[in-house]
Design goal:
Strand content: 15-25%
Helix content: 25-40%
Structural class: alpha/beta
Mean pLDDT: 86
Order of helices and strands: HHHEHEEEHEEE
Number of strands: 7
Distance between the termini: 16 Å
């Protein structure tokens, strides 16, 4: 990775150069909260990725969540139930949020979801979304990505560390 990409990811990860108020809040409070900034019950989660996904769920509050995952599906379902007990988990239809876990996860229902979390940025659906995104934000790093489609947001891609 070139020095300029590293520097850009570092800057965006600290909120510098992020001019959208929505994106700034997302970066500073959800994706990269400062030390000591806690979400209720997040400290009980053993893995950093689970804590990240917990923060995303609590902040964005999707009503319907779909999960495309292999052996991690049950763990992710429990995480969604812990974060948002009132949220419905579905295996069919178009959910508000889709969690795509793994590069080979079949995420046919994700194409219409407003929020999509990828734990592997090599997933072909992410590349397709990045090309066709008309409104909304993509937050990505070399391993993970979060797509937030919203008609109120301009199409922007933020390379940050989270």
């Amino acid at each position: 990775m070139g020095l300029s990409r590293w520097y850009k990811r570092w800057r965006h990860g600290h909120g510098y150069g992020v001019h959208s108020p929505y994106a700034y809040r997302m970066v500073r409070e959800v994706l990269r909260p400062p030390r000591g900034y806690a979400y209720y019950a997040a400290d009980r989660l053993p893995h950093a990725e689970l804590r990240l996904l917990y923060r995303i769920l609590v902040d964005l509050r999707p009503a319907i969540v779909g999960i495309a995952a292999g052996e991690q599906k049950l763990l992710l379902q429990r995480l969604v139930e812990m974060a948002l007990p009132e949220t419905r988990i579905t295996d069919s239809g178009t959910p508000d949020m889709m969690i795509v876990h793994g590069q080979t996860a079949v995420a046919t229902d994700a194409a219409g979801a407003d929020i999509i979390y990828f734990n592997d940025t090599r997933h072909p659906l992410l590349a397709e979304i990045a090309v066709t995104l008309e409104r909304g934000h993509i937050y990505r790093n070399p391993t993970r990505a979060l797509v937030v489609r919203d008609v109120r947001l301009p199409a922007q891609v933020f390379d940050i560390r989270f």
